[in-house]
Design a protein that fits this description.
The complex is a heterodimer of chains A (about 260) and B (about 230). Chain A contains 10 helices and 5 strands, in the order ααββααβαββααααα. In chain A, α2 runs antiparallel to α6, α7 packs across α8 and α8 packs across α9. The longest helix of chain A has 26 residues. The relative contact order of chain A is 0.13. Chain B has 2 domains: about 170 residues, GAF domain (Beta-Lactamase); about 45 residues. Chain B contains 11 helices and 5 strands, in the order ααββααβαββαααααα. A 5-stranded antiparallel beta sheet of chain B has the order 2-1-5-4-3, sandwiched between helices. In chain B, a hairpin with a 5-residue loop joins β1 and β2. In chain B, α1 crosses α2 and α9 packs across α10. Classes of the chains: A alpha+beta (about 260), B alpha+beta (about 230). At the A-B interface, β2, α3, α7 and α9 of A face α7, α8 and α9 of B.
Chain lengths: ~260, ~230
């Protein structure tokens, strides 16, 4: 692995993350992007972020694929698994093989294995002495994270924590019912837009979502506004590709 | 009978959900356990009167919820439209009110339905629908005060949304939902047929009706690419 190229990629990534911490900051968007960048660094493992709500229950906030989101939800439901262990102890769970983990996680391990995962890791998101959530890496391979990879993932976890702090500071206290209605509306439109993009550009739903989200960020628009434009026809799906010449390339390989 | 349905509902919900936040599925389960009904459905509406997210508890309830969605008629849709509860004591007698939905529900073993609109602020955001079979008795007896239960659930939903970030729907509100695939399929069909999303949804529901399968099942096939719509 070319150290210089990887360092350059990292520098660009963190500048990009800092750029998103501006006025129309969207936490889910930020965390999704962070998860995806982490995926690029870790060469195909899947990444998710769980955050504790005011009652202390973990909630799934962002997932690089729908698959990991579902398995993380199982963990929340069972109150068992690497994320829960990490959250409760405040200590990382690293290089945990699912094969043979039935005693440690009797309900989580079979479900995670069935989905194709072999190795799981979880890092705490810390705010001073408090653990506010976890960053999770689920791998279908048996790759063990090197100390360097752990260090880099920890840097992403710290960036996530900064973003969360930012969001809590600037969150507008607008009327909750208006927020709920808007959220219900935007969910319909965003899912419909995913379908339109998937069909027009012949990609899968996860890829369609990333194209939507990247376009929204490049143009500094809300995701729901971009989705609405696609559904109404004022934006064409091919236009989502036209900005991808500036798309952030992943590092070509990583050290084994 | 002066039992407080809303209070029982909350007690049951606390027991079912434990420390985890409730979701649309567990809210329906709590209704089905706390009340003498065989199932419950919760549908929240979004843009263009499309069903945004939905939860359900009970096999017959799930099939009835899907049938109402597919056929575009039924007590739940009516309650949402008029903004007031709709009570059906006997679906067989009320068959001409919903000529396509009623026979389907009856065949599922459902005798009675109590549909209550849910409000957040001044807008109706969705509908709670309770289904009774031959053991459930009169639907007017299930809820002394339908609006109290509806408002309780409305407050729960707002509380869940309060913990979400900005304009995103709270995870707890979409975790039990399976409608996402329907919206995705609607988008794909609208692109395949070059029509608007409202018409695309009509076509999706029409195909589900024609092949006698649940809308979500047909939608899943569209999203997977194994089923296409050509003009």
């Amino acid at each position: 692995m070319d150290v210089d190229r990887r360092d350059e990629w990292l520098a660009r990534t963190f500048v990009e993350l800092a750029d998103t911490l501006v006025a129309d900051f969207d936490l889910i968007d930020f965390l999704s992007m962070l998860a995806d960048r982490c995926v690029e660094l870790l060469d195909g493992a899947e990444v998710g972020l769980l955050l504790a709500d005011p009652r202390g229950s973990l909630q799934v906030m962002a997932s690089s694929t729908e698959r990991i989101g579902r398995i993380e939800s199982c963990e929340v439901q069972y109150e068992e698994g690497p994320c829960y262990e990490c959250y409760r102890s405040g200590l990382p769970v690293l290089n945990a093989r699912l094969e043979g983990a039935e005693r440690r996680w009797p309900r989580f391990a079979p479900v995670a294995k069935e989905s194709g995962y072999q190795m799981v890791h979880a890092l705490p998101l810390r705010l001073r002495d408090d653990v506010i959530g976890t960053m999770n890496v689920f791998d279908t391979s048996l790759h063990e994270m090197t100390p360097e990879e752990v260090g880099l993932t920890r840097a992403f976890a710290d960036a996530a924590t900064i973003g969360i702090l930012q969001e809590r500071t600037i969150r507008r206290k607008s009327d909750l019912s208006t927020q709920l209605q808007a959220a219900l509306d935007s969910r319909v439109v965003v899912e419909q837009a995913k379908g339109i993009v998937a069909e027009r550009l012949k990609v899968d739903i996860d890829a369609a979502f990333r194209l939507l989200r990247d376009h929204a960020r490049r143009n500094r628009e809300q995701l729901s506004a971009v989705a609405g434009a696609l559904v109404s026809g004022s934006l064409g799906a091919p236009e989502l590709l036209s900005g991808s010449a500036g798309h952030h390339p992943a590092p070509e390989d990583r050290s084994g | 009978m002066s039992v407080d349905a809303a209070g029982r509902f909350l007690a049951v919900l606390a027991e079912i959900a434990g420390d985890a936040p409730p979701n649309l599925g567990t809210i329906c389960e709590a209704c089905a356990v706390a009340l003498p009904v065989c199932g419950a459905s919760l549908v929240l509406m979004g843009a263009g009167d499309h069903e945004s997210v939905a939860g359900v508890f009970g096999g017959a309830a799930a099939a009835a919820q899907d049938a109402e969605f597919m056929l575009g008629e039924g007590p739940g849709l009516e309650a949402h439209l008029v903004g007031r509860p709709v009570v059906v004591a006997d679906l067989i007698v009320a068959a001409d009110r919903w000529p396509r939905f009623a026979p389907v529900a009856v065949e599922l073993g459902i005798r009675a339905i109590h549909a209550v609109p849910l409000r957040a602020g001044t807008t109706t955001i969705g509908v709670l629908e309770l289904y009774g079979d031959h053991r459930s008795g009169s639907p007017t007896d299930w809820l002394q005060d339908p609006l109290l239960l509806a408002n309780t659930i409305g407050l729960l939903l707002l509380n869940l949304q309060a913990e979400a970030a900005s304009e995103s729907l709270a995870w707890a509100l979409n975790i039990a939902d399976t409608r996402a695939v329907v919206h995705q399929a609607t988008g794909m069909i609208s692109a395949q047929l070059q029509v608007g999303v409202d018409e695309a949804l009509v076509r999706l529901r029409g195909r589900a009706f024609a092949v006698d399968r649940a809308v979500e099942a047909v939608a899943a096939e569209v999203v997977a690419g194994s089923s296409r719509f050509e003009s």
